[in-house]
Amino acid sequence: MSFYRNAVWFMKGMQEYTKSGYEAAAKHFAPADLDVNLSGRSFMVTGANSGIGKATAQEIAKRGGTVHMICRNKGRAETAKDEIVAQSKNENVHVHIVDMSSARQVWEFAQNFSQNNKLHVLINNAGCMVNQRELTEEGLEKNFATNTLGTYILTTALIPAMKKVEDPRVITVSSGGMLTQKLNVDDLQSEKGTFDGTMTYAQNKRQQVILTERWASQHKEIHFSSMHPGWADTPAVQSSMPSFHAKMQSKLRTEAMGADTVVWLAVSAAAIKQPSGLFFQGEKPLNSANQWWLLHEC
Questions:
Q1: Residue 266: is it exposed, middle or buried by C-beta count within 10 angstroms (0-12/13-18/19+)?
Q2: Is the dihedral of CA 38, 111, 56, 152 positive or negative?
Q3: DSSP string, 75-92
Q4: Model pTM score
Q5: How far apart (Å, rounded) are the C-alpha atoms in residues 167 and 257?
Q6: Could you say which of 23, 77, 125, 212 would form a disulfide bridge with 226 (CB–CB 3.0 to 4.6 Å)?
Q7: Where are the domains of the chain?
Q8: What's the rounded mean pLDDT across residues 10-30?
Q9: What would be one Pfam family of this protein (predicted)?
Q10: 203-227 burial code (b ≥16 CB/10 A, e <16)
Q11: Model confidence pLDDT, tens digit, residues 24-48
């Protein structure tokens, strides 16, 4: 990543990704877009026990949707479920224990789920930023296994079932950090050079955006989108980027602010009026002439 690109991204972040950026963008939101009854619709949220995933699950449950929480830790998942049910008064919240870094677990879960459940909306939110190179039991670099491969396997396995329902959608929570990365398919396992967890994470998020574009072109029956939640104050940011969190804490968005665009893409009629496959920041796709170069140039 060049110094110039990094500087441009950080300045953009300070202006648009912080709490003040959210408040400025929120003036143009249409609250009526989220005034929906989701009874009868089924939503799957990965990484739903905390942070943006939990806030998203909460908003869906409040509107009557059936929520399937995909989590790795059973204790934290059950606690989060109880809180969501208590606040939403919606009992249709279900926990599934799946390690998204395990290709085998993800595939087997998706196959079993498809046989027994309907799914209208998949929200790929789970992610990790491991700052030291670490391999899973399957021999895969952990960031790639969780962020890219887990997302790919889960989505691919659920697509056939989603084509059988009305208005199916897939939303993938990416990151503005991917704007600093040119897609690199020659080092998916981060084996070359010095390992940098932040750059590996950003590369994974770039991969998610490209996957979203490819899925959209291949599966016209489903509406795909990826998005950037802004810089939000979540447990993941606190643990993975402690220095950034300490410096930026007062400027970071709340978890609910970070989930706002996810919920809009998942539930509103306005969202599917946009073309499938786009990357969103707020309710607008990031494709203006002065920004698109970040996505597609070196």
A1: buried
A2: negative
A3: HHHHHHHHHHHHHH----
A4: 0.86
A5: 25
A6: 212
A7: 41-296
A8: 63
A9: adh_short
A10: bbbbbbbebbbebbeebeebbbbbb
A11: 667 677 788 889 999 999 999 999 9
Annotate 121-142 with b (16+ C-beta within 10 A) or e (fewer): bbbbbbbbbbeebeebeeebbb
Measuring CA to CA, which residue among 124, 142, 138, 278 is closest to residue 201?
142
Catalogue the active-site residues: 201
DSSP track, 44-76: EEETTTSHHHHHHHHHHHHTT-EEEEEES-HHH
Half-sphere exposure of 258 (CA within 13 A, CB side): 27
What is the pLDDT at residue 291? 44
- Copy the structure tokens of residue 248: 């930026």
Q: Give mean pLDDT, residues 145-168.
A: 98
Pair of tokens at residue 35: 């005034």
Q: What is the pLDDT of residues 166-205, one digit of tens each?
A: 999 999 999 877 877 788 889 899 999 899 988 899 899 9
CATH of 41-296, one of 3.40.50.720, 3.40.30.10, 3.90.79.10, 2.60.40.1180: 3.40.50.720
DSSP designation for 253: B
Q: Which of 184, 181, 266 is nearest to 227 (CA)?
A: 266
